[in-house]
Amino acid sequence: MTVTELTEANFDQEVLGCALPVLIDFWASWCGPCRMMAPVVEEIAAEYPDVKVCKVNVDDEDTLAAQFGVMSIPTFVVMKDGRPVGKKVGVVPKDDLLDLLGK
Description:
Helix content is 35%, strand content 27%.
């Protein structure tokens, strides 16, 4: 599966209307740790077709970042049935993200 770029305009449709678990990566282009995690996020998207993987650029979508209480990046949020069920902040092992997803 590919990584979906989230905006305020498509958030409800892409996340709240999704039957799959959703991994959201809150990131910014200037963030070194975010760039370190990008390949891990891409791997999860490629290896787990039963998970929807999305990214939110916090510089462009500050309202979404505020809605999820993002204070530092990268922040990863897992949504199931339209509700947040897990959160990790910073550079984390791939296994930690998979644990959030129940994999």
